[in-house]
């Protein structure tokens, strides 16, 4: 009797070890093709068969994005039975091609399966206007500027803006013109199928930048159909790339800081009138090392700036003369800012307000 019970226990243990559900998918991917955003959510079902000798349970399902949802039967799947996962994709504000994964976890074999959905979303007009307001023929862009922020003089930085081929029929060739030694730009990819999303990518090398302080570069973006037709739309526009290039004084020792130049400006505001379109101010170096005036500038047109020296010794002054040309200024009221960039660690960029009525 004891021998019989022992054999029975061994048999039960073997069944527990080897009896399990087996996951066999009838579909593991689905291509929605081209869908229109205004048509709303789309769904598909993917079926699995339990080919094992024990019940199979789907424990949970995880999606790779909040735009994708799933629904499934939480009951055990008997051997030989079929169940399915329903997957729903929301194209709202998601123009272009998409590939999403849905991960299905079970207590059988395999423990995890990866399902895939894909497709291409054609944006509705309101989405194009809201998210891609800049038009370059059939190409749409998120904006017309790429601000890179502050960079120390030995740094490199890259950024991009997103582009979309809004055509439903034409493949676009996209090109970016205007690269210089300090700035490289390219369309990635340079060929966009209908409805596809890409980028205009910019690489900025501050060590090669021509100016201290604000650098503003203009690039030209062009798009044209790969196979031009009577309805194909070509276009061209300009984008601005802006970077503030400054020196890196973070590694200066305390002794070096004590020896460094110190900038003092005689005023923070200059006043102008039609009768007195010229004004001056002085810059004094109260530090020990020579002060380098690397750049004195303003973005306003019609303003001439002359400085009598670019290097100021300890205890000495430089005189800056500012002259307004009302005709070139193009307006009767002036409220602008003049920027001084120097090698003074404590204040390498300072400003003088320019105010006038003409």
Describe this entry's structure for a reader.
The chain is mainly beta and about 350 residues long. The chain folds into 3 domains: about 20-120, Immunoglobulin-like (Sandwich); about 130-245, Immunoglobulin-like, CATH 2.60.40.10; about 255-355, Immunoglobulins (Immunoglobulin-like, Sandwich), CATH 2.60.40. Helix content is about 10%, strand content about 55%. The protein has 4 helices and 27 strands. Strands 9-10-12-16-14 form a 5-stranded antiparallel β-sheet, with helices on one face. The chain has a 5-stranded mixed β-sheet with strand order 11-18-17-13-15, with no helix packed on it. The longest helix is centred in the N-terminal third of the chain and has 17 residues, at about 1-20. It is elongated. The model is unreliable at about 5-15 (pLDDT under 50).
Which fold name fills CATH's third level, the topology of the largest domain?
Immunoglobulin-like
Class by SSE composition? mainly beta
Separation of the first and last Cα atoms: 116 Å
The number of helices is: 4
Morphology call: elongated
Q: Superfamily at the CATH H level of the largest domain?
A: Immunoglobulins
Task: Report low-confidence residues grouped into runs of 5 or more.
Answer: 4-17
Biggest sheet statistics: 5 strands, antiparallel
Radius of gyration computed on alpha carbons: 33 Å
CATH architecture of the largest domain: Sandwich
Chain-averaged pLDDT? 92
Number of strands: 27
Strand content: over 45%
The CATH class of the largest domain is Mainly Beta
The tally of domains stands at 3
């Amino acid at each position: 009797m004891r021998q019989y019970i022992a054999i029975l226990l061994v048999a039960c243990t073997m069944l527990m070890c080897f009896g399990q559900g087996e996951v066999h998918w009838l579909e593991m991917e689905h291509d929605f093709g081209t869908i229109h955003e205004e048509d709303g959510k789309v769904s598909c079902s993917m079926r699995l068969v339990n080919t094992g000798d024990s019940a199979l349970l789907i424990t949970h399902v995880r999606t790779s994005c909040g735009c994708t949802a799933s629904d499934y039967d939480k009951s055990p799947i008997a051997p030989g039975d079929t169940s399915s996962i329903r997957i729903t994709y929301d194209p709202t504000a998601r123009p272009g091609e998409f590939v999403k994964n849905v991960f299905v976890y079970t207590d059988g074999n395999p423990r995890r399966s990866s399902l895939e959905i894909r497709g291409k979303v054609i944006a509705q007009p309101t989405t194009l206007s809201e998210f891609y307001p800049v038009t370059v023929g059939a190409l749409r862009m998120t904006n017309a500027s790429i601000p890179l922020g502050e960079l120390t003089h030995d740094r490199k930085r890259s950024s991009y803006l997103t582009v979309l081929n809004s055509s439903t029929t034409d493949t676009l060739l996209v090109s970016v013109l205007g690269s210089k030694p300090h700035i490289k730009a390219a369309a990635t990819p340079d060929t966009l199928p209908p409805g596809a999303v890409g980028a205009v990518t910019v690489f900025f090398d501050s060590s090669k930048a021509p100016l201290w302080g604000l650098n503003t570069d203009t690039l030209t973006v062009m798009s044209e159909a790969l196979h031009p037709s009577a309805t194909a739309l070509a276009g061209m526009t300009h984008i601005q790339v802006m970077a503030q290039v400054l020196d890196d004084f973070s590694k200066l020792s305390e002794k070096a800081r004590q020896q460094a130049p110190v900038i003092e400006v005689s005023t923070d505001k200059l006043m102008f009138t039609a009768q007195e379109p010229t004004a001056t101010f002085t810059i004094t170096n109260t530090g020990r090392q020579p002060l380098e005036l690397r750049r004195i500038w303003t973005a306003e047109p019609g303003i001439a700036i002359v400085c009598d020296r670019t290097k100021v010794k300890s205890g000495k002054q430089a005189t800056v003369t500012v002259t307004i040309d009302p005709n070139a200024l193009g307006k009767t009221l002036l409220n602008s800012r003049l920027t001084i960039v120097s090698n003074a660690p404590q204040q390498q960029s300072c400003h003088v307000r320019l105010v006038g009525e003409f």
